[in-house]
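Onboarding guide, step 5: your first structure request.
Type a short instruction followed by the sequence, for example:

Predict the 3D structure of this protein.
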Amino acid sequence: MKNIIRTVLLFAMISNLQSCKQGPKAEVVEEETILVPFNKASSSNDNLNISILIDLSDRINPKKFPAPAMEFYLRDIGYMESVAESFEWHVLNKKVIKIDDKIQVFIDPEPSDQTLNKKIGELKIHFTKGDVIKDSILKVPEKYGNISRLIYKSAIEDDHYVGSNIWGFFKNKVDDYCIDEGYRNILVILTDGYMYHKDAKMEQGNRTSYIIPQSIKMNGLNKSDWQKRMDEKDFGFIVPEKDLSNLEVLVLGINPVKGSPYEEDVIRTYWSKWFDGMKVKNYEIKQADLPTHMDKIIRDFILKK
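The system replies with structure tokens like these:
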């Protein structure tokens, strides 16, 4: 059914573009939209710059962290497809002359497999008004689904998890890689909320570049007075000197270890303090759930007016 709908949309899009070309005045093109497939479309004048940062730590290991309802790596793939579909809808809803939108994927540290890195490079997509006559717009979700499967399959088969350097990515790369002037910059992070990489372990007082279940327990944040202790001792992430007021962040997949009713609250507070300290414009932190439930959350975040 989805393929049939996309075929119809593509036909309508091409017909619309052809009618635009036949108009005697450039102003006609300015007023034409490609298509409006549903009522809640994104702001037609926004230029989207969407980045996805994938945490390929052992959280995706189906043997270590089995999830009978749906494995966590499959949930990630579903989230990526929803992000790509939202991007697709956004482009299809824009005026042709205003299309200038980007989407891309990052992994830190990058995989050692050069073939896989080349595949990840294929997920760096930029559409401008000169590209809209191509059916590649409607192939973005399929491409993201297929290549993300290769990424996770490779990581799971390699079975060598060194963590994910999310903290280092924000300190050293997020400005250059994820923020462009003239765009609505969105970073989607797929992670369980814990943060650790063997080459990025730093401490400044009670501020750290990592958070793991062991540190939460060691710092006494697994008890009912965790908030008071956190405030008094100033536990949290080290905050790089950043002004990310032109960045919006959506964190998906928070999955605290079982056994502590306060673990998720602690994780959320760590991330919130970190984002606030870097002046992130807007952010949401969401627990791991099935892609069918997360689809609306993702769509609303990306396509909000």
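Each response can be followed by summary notes, for example: Residues 42-303 form a domain with the Rossmann fold fold (CATH 3.40.50).
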